[in-house]
Amino acid sequence: MEVKTSLLDNMIGVGDMVLLEPLNEDSFIMNLRNRFDHNEIYTYIGSVVISMNPYRSLPIYTPQKVEEYRNRNFYELSPHIYALADEAYRSLRDQDKDQCILITGESGAGKTEASKLVMSYVAAVCGKGQEVNKVKEQLLQSNPVLEAFGNAKTMRNDNSSRFGKYMDIEFDFKGDPLGGVISNYLLEKSRVCKQPRGERNFHIFYQLLSGASDDTLVKLKLDRDFSKYNYLSLDSANVNGLDDAASFRTVRNAMQIVGFMEAEVQSVLELVAAVLKLGNIEFKPESRVNGFDESRVKDKNDLKEMCELLGIEQSVLERAFSYRTVEAKMEKMSTTLNVAQAYYARDALAKNLYSRLFSWLVTRINESIKAQAKTRHKVMGVLDIYGFEIFEVRDNSFEQFIINYCNEKLQQIFIELTLREEQEEYIREDIEWTNIEYFNNAVICDLIENNQNGILAMLDEECLRPGTVTDDTFLDKLNTICAEHQHFESRLNKNSKFLTDHSLPHSCFRIQHYAGKVLYRVEGFVDKNNDLLYRDLSQAMYKATHSLMRQLFPEGNPAKVNLKRPPTAGFQFKASVGVLMKNLQTKNPNYIRCIKPNDKKVAHIFTDSLVCHQVRYLGLVENVRVRRAGYAFRQPYESCLERYKMLCKKTWPHWRGPARDGVEVLLTDCSVPTEEFAYGRSKIFIRNPRTLFTLEERRRACLEDLATLIQKIYRGWKSRTHFLLLKKSQVVVAAWYRRYAQQNKYQKIKSATLVMQSFIRGWKARNILRQLKYEKRCKEAVTTIAAYWHGTQARMELRRLKTEARNKRAVSVIWAYWQGTKVRREYRKFFRANAGKKIYDFTIQRIMQKYFLGLKTTTMSPMDNSWPAKPYGFLEGAHTQLRRIFHLWRCKKYRGQFTEEKKAVYEEKLEASEIFKDKKALYPSSVSQPFKGDYLEIQKNPKYQKLNSAMEEKVLLADLVNKINRANGKGSPRLFLLTKSNFVLADQKTGQVKASVPLPDLASVSVSTQSDGFFALKLKEGSASASKGDFLLSSEHLIEIITKLHRIGTTAADRDQINIDISDEFLVQFKQDKVCVKFIQGGPKNGNSAACKRKNNRLLEVSVPSP
Ligand SMILES: Nc1ncnc2c1ncn2[C@@H]1O[C@H](COP(=O)(O)OP(=O)(O)O)[C@@H](O)[C@H]1O
Ligand SMILES: [Mg+2]
C-alpha cells in the first residue's frame, strides 16, 4: 500500500514558511535556525526552496533519496531540492511546460552546488541508454571545464564562480536529454591582473603550473614556480582541500569528454601561458626631447617568449606597448604611451585575452553539447547567477552595480511570475481575486535601464562624449538627471535631503534597491564601462600566427577596420540581461534561494545577523507575504479530506460522495468560520495558517484518541486471539501428554511382564536342564562302570590266557630241552668234533637243492620277463646273475631257430624301430604287422603281367598308394613299386608306368609325427626326375615303405643314408612352387583316415584324427 505522507508530518519548525505564524523577520529567522540546527537545510516558501549551506556533506543526496523523491508530490515529503527538481522535470515531461530553475544567493551560499544537485537529479531520473548517457556525461562534464577557467578562491568561497551562468538543457518528448546551450554573463576579468588579499586568480593558472607534465611546461615556456608570475597572488596560492594537480587532470579529462581536440586543448593552454607571460612584461620610462616620458619594455625576455609562443613579431608588440594610434575621420595620429599607460594597455590586453578565451570556451562547449535533432525541444534552464552584492567595508563598484541590476531584474520577474501564477490559480479555481499590495521594483529597474535617462544610458553617453570625461563628470550628470528619483540618493543632489548625510561620501551615489540601500563609488565606472583595448594591441594580436588568438581578436583585422566604438560593457550586459529575461518569461520558474549561515565557511554555525541580512535582500519575508496575500494555504479536496476526515463523525472513517462535499461537511462540523476558507474547483483555500494549525492540532489530538482506540481494539483482539490459541494449544498438549503418559505406563507394564516371564521361563528351563543333566550323568556312569567292568574281566581273561600259553610253551621248551638234553646225552659219543660243520653243509645243500628246483618252471620265451622271487638274502647276487645269463641263453636259443629271410625281416623291423620309434605316432601299430613287401602279388596276378614284365629288376615292394593332387588335396590311387635301383608309380587300372625315379635322385623323405600315412618324396634339385616336382603320397604301409626306401636307397645311391625328415610342417616342391604341408590334430571327424585340404596356393592342410 502506498504510504500517504505530508510535508506537515514530523515538521521541525514549519517546513513551509507560508505557515509561519506570526510572520515577521525574527520568527522567520528563528524558524530557519531551528531547522538548520536539526540538519533541515531546506525550507519552502510555497514552491520556492530556501537552501542553507551546511558546509559539510549531509547524507541526503544518496541514490535512495533520489528514489524517495522520484514521482512524489511536492508537499508529500519534507522539503528538499530534489522535490523541486522532480516537480520541474515532471511538469516539463508530462505537461510540456518549459522550465527554468533560478538559483540566487550571495557568493558561497551554495548556488553552484545547488545547480549541480538539480542537474544530477535530472540526470538520474531521466531516460537511460548509450546515446542519452553520452549527452548527460557531456552536459555534466562541461562543469569542471568552466569551473577551472571561471572559478577562483575568494574570501567567501574557495570555489567561487566568477561568472554568471545560464544553461538550457534540452529534452525530447520522452524527457530524454538531447543537449544544451550555455550562456555566460560578465566574467570578473579584473581578477586576471589583480586579486584582493587572501584570494586567488582563476583556478586554471594554478592547475596548469601544478598539474602539467614537465614536457608540457617546457613547450609552454613556463616554470612550475608560482612566485615567478606577477599575476598570481602568492599568499594563498595553495588552498586547503584543493588539489590543483588532480583538478588539472580532471579538467583535461572533462575537456576530452566534452569533445575538445588535443590541438584545441593545446591552444587554450598556450593562451593561458601567454597571459602569465604578459603579466611579467615590465616597463621603464625613457625621456623624450619633448619632455614627456615614453615607456620601454624593461626585460625583453618574457616578451620574446610570449611572442614565440603565439607567433607574433616581437617588434610589433613592443611598438604597441609604446605608441597608440588614434584614427579619426581619415586621419591617423600616433601618440606615445607613458609607463602608466603601458601598464594599463598590458592589463587591458590580459583581461581581454582571458575573458575572450573564456567566452570562446563557452561557445566551443556549446558546439559540442548542442542538440543534434532539429525537432522541437522541451527546455529546462538552470540559472546560477551571483546574488546581490553589498560590501560594507569595501566600496561597491561598477561590477556590483551591474550584478545588483541583474538581481533587481530577477526579482521583478519573480514578482511578476509568482503573482501571475497565483492569479492564474485563483482564476483556475474560481476564487475571487483580491488585489494584493506588494512592492514592485519596476521603478528601480527603470532607474537603471531606462534608455533615455537611466543610469546605464547616461554612463554610455558620458563614455561616448567627446572632451574630457571622468567619473566625476558622470556623477555630476547623474546628480542632475536622477535627482528626482525616489530611489536615487546623492550628496550633491539638488534634493537637499542628503546635503548633510555624512554616510554618503561625495564621490558616491546610493541606490535603494528592493533589498536594501547600496552605496556605489563612481571611481572606475567610466573605464570599466569603456573596457578599452588600444587598437594597436588588437591588431598586433591579429597578426599572430596562432589561429585561436586571431580568432579572439577579429577587430584587429586591418581589412575590417571599424571606426565605430565597440559597445560598452554596460550596454552589452543590459542587452544580455534583456535576452535572458525574455527567455525566462516564457518558462515556468522554480526558485532556489541560497543562504549562507556564516562567514567562516564552517558547519554548525548560524550567524543571525548574516542570515538576517540575506533574508532581507533576497526579499524572502516579502516573498512569503506575496504568497500569503490571498490565502496562505491550499490543498486538493482529496488530500484535505484524507488528512482531516477523522475530525468529523460523518466523514469518518469513510466519506461516500464527492470529496468537496466531504470537506464542506467537515469544515462546517469543525465550526471553522466561513471567512477563513474558500472553495475552489479542486482545492480548498485556507486564508490563515492559524486555521490550518488548529485543524492540525485537532487532528493530532484526534489521532491520539484514534491511536488509543486502535490500540485498545488491537490489544483486545490480540489478547483474545492469544487466549484462544493458548486454549487450543492446551487441549492439544493435554491430549498429547495423556497419550504419552499412557504409552509410557503400558510400556513399563509390558517390560515388567516380560522380565517376570523370562525369569520364570529361565527358572523352569534350568530345572529341566538340571534333571536332564542328572539323567545323562547317570547313564554315562552306568556305561563307564560297565566298560570298566568288561575291561577288568577281559584283562583278567587275557592274563589267564597268557599265563596258560606261557605255561604251555614253557612245557614244550622244557620238553624240547629235555629231549635235546636226552638226545645230546645219547648221541654225545657219535658227534664229537665235526658234527656241527656237517650239519651246516647238509643244511646248505638242502637249501640250494630246493632253490634250483624252484627255477625249473621258467619258460623259454624271450619275451617272458617273469623270474622267481629271491628265496634268501645271501643268494641275491647269484640270483640276478642267473636271471641275466638265462635270458641271454634263451635269446640265443631263439635266434638260432631263425632262417635267413626271417632274419632280414627282423633287420628291417629293427631299422624301422630305429627310424620311427618315439618319433611317429603311427609306429607302435605297425610293430606287430609283418612286412610283407609284395602286397599286390605282382608276379602271380595276371592283371599286372605287363607291368611286371616291364620291371627290369626284382620288385621288392608293391603296394597301392594314393597320390595327392596338389590342386585340391584329393588322392588318386597309384601302384607303387620299389626295386633295388628305383621306384615306380603306375596307373592302378592299366598298370602303365607313370613315373620311374632312380633312387639316387631321391633327396629326402618327409613324414609327419602323427598317425597318418602321408609322405613326401623329395627329389634332388637339378636331377632329371625333379622336373615334375616332388611326390606327396599316402599309404597304409607307410612304415614299411619308408623303411625299405631308407635301406635300399642308401645302398643304391651309395651314400650315408636317405634323409628322413619327421615334422608336422614341411615344404613340397610342386613344379615351380613350394607348397607347405601342415598337419593338424583333431580335424573334422570324417572317418578314421586323415583328410587333406588345400587352404590356399601355398598351404595344404592335413587334419589327422586325434588318437
Ligand atoms: N548542499 C551542500 N552540501 C554540502 N556542502 C555545500 C552545499 N552547498 C554548498 N556547500 C559548500 O559550500 C561551498 C560553496 O558553495 P558554492 O555552490 O560554490 O557557492 P556559490 O556558488 O553560491 O558561490 C561549496 O564548495 C561546498 O563546500
Ligand atoms: Mg558559484
Describe the structure.
It is found in: Cytoplasm, Cell cortex. This is Unconventional myosin-Ib. Belongs to the TRAFAC class myosin-kinesin ATPase superfamily. Myosin family. The chain is built from 31 helices and 31 strands. The protein has 1107 residues and is of the alpha+beta class. A hairpin with a 3-residue loop joins strand 21 and strand 22 (982-987). Helix 9 (262-280) packs antiparallel against helix 12 (339-369). The longest helix is centred in the C-terminal third of the chain and has 143 residues, at 689-831. The protein binds adenosine-5'-diphosphate and magnesium ion (MG).
In short:
ATP binds at residues 105-112. Helices cover 48% and strands 16% of the residues.
List keywords for this structure.
1107 residues; 8-stranded mixed sheet; 7-stranded mixed sheet; 31 helices; 48% helix; binds adenosine-5'-diphosphate; binds magnesium ion
Query: What is the approximate shape?
Result: elongated
Bound molecules: adenosine-5'-diphosphate, magnesium ion
Structural class: alpha+beta
Number of contiguous helices: 31
Number of strands: 31
The percentage helix is 40-55%
Q: Percent of residues in beta strands?
A: 15-25%
What's the layout of helices and strands?
Blueprint: H1 25-37, E1 42-45, E2 48-52, H2 63-69, H3 81-94, E3 99-104, H4 111-125, H5 130-150, E4 151-152, E5 160-161, E6 164-171, E7 177-185, H6 203-211, H7 214-219, H8 244-258, H9 262-280, E8 283-287, E9 293-297, H10 300-310, H11 314-320, E10 323-328, E11 331-336, H12 339-369, E12 378-384, H13 398-429, H14 442-449, H15 455-464, H16 471-481, E13 488-490, E14 508-513, E15 516-521, H17 525-530, H18 535-542, H19 547-552, H20 569-585, E16 588-595, H21 608-617, H22 620-628, E17 633-636, H23 637-644, H24 659-669, E18 677-679, E19 683-686, H25 689-831, H26 835-855, H27 876-896, H28 900-916, H29 923-927, H30 945-950, E20 957-964, E21 971-978, E22 982-987, E23 993-998, E24 1002-1007, E25 1014-1019, E26 1031-1034, H31 1038-1053, E27 1059-1062, E28 1065-1070, E29 1073-1081, E30 1091-1096, E31 1099-1104
Parallel strand pairs: 2-16, 3-12, 3-16, 24-27, 29-31
Antiparallel strand pairs: 1-2, 4-5, 6-7, 6-12, 8-9, 10-11, 13-14, 14-15, 17-19, 18-19, 20-21, 20-26, 21-22, 22-23, 24-25, 25-26, 28-29, 30-31
Helix pairs in contact: 1-21, 3-4, 5-6, 5-8, 5-12, 6-8, 9-10, 9-12, 13-14, 13-20, 15-16, 23-24, 28-31
The chain binds adenosine-5'-diphosphate and magnesium ion (MG).
Adenosine-5'-diphosphate binds at residues 53-58, 105, 107-113, 157, 159-161, 594.
